[in-house]
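#help-structures
NK: newbie question, is this the right format to request a structure? protein is Oxygenase MpaB family protein
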Amino acid sequence: MTVLLSGVPGLAEFRRRLGAELFARVAGPQGPASRRRIHETPGPRWFGPERPIRAVHGDASMFVGGLRALLLQSLHPLAMAAVAGHSGYRGDPWGRLQRTSTFLAVTTFGTAEDAQRAVDHVRSVHRRVRGVTAAGEPYRADDPHLLGWVHAAEVDSFLRAHRAYGARRLDDAAYDGYVADAARVAGALGVPDPPRTRQELADRIAAYRPELRAGPEALDAARFLLFHPPVPLVALPAYGVLAASAAALLPGWARRQLGLPRIPLVETTAVPLAGHALTATIRWAMVPPPSPVPPAGPAQGASSS
């Protein structure tokens, strides 16, 4: 199909412009410089080119996984209070996305020195984030228990999105390897004994279940992310597919808490088809320039696959 489309007048320019717009949204104004630094700086890296974390974080399915992660993470009241009070997700949602995306890129693909520097920066930010919820519960962003929840929800989301929409689905052993790779980053961030297999990950999420509930801030965040996103009007249909794909991957208990209805026939047919079409289009548009280091993906904020 790509060969057939290659001869369509103006298609190459459309592809270039679409890819540039997506990259700018995800990577920000420093995206090109960050991509060069991450992929062209020589030196040892935390993860070699054969590691599963590169396949997962280098795929367009990260767009779906990232949104699912935000929805799932919001169900912990203390984590959500920290996000609502300090992250600027409403006032500067694209800035928050770009910072997260760049962190994922640096720790996955960058040099070991650059990755450690990024981790040190995040830890310094976390030390300054603390407060009290509306219910009077104190929280701090560097609380190892809260960090553990954020990590578990994120890794589970990226893994499930890749299994559903990745260009090349991995086998079970490789997905266990992905959880183990992600644990290295989590440990550096201060997560105690992060899960290293899919079973450990499932057990960890189950252990957090009694603490999870959709408070007013979580419900407000879900409405913002799913129904009032900060995207141009022309992009709303594509974002709607992204939102539906992310919501459909949430576990039933999380959907019930967030008040998201399940429509079985639509979610087993239309949503997967639309989700595959969307991620394939993103993958097609965001082709990175040649690099001496294996290229990264759009969700990394510094490259794409």
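mod (FA): yep, format's fine, and the tokens are attached above. The chain has one domain: 14-288.
NK: thank you!
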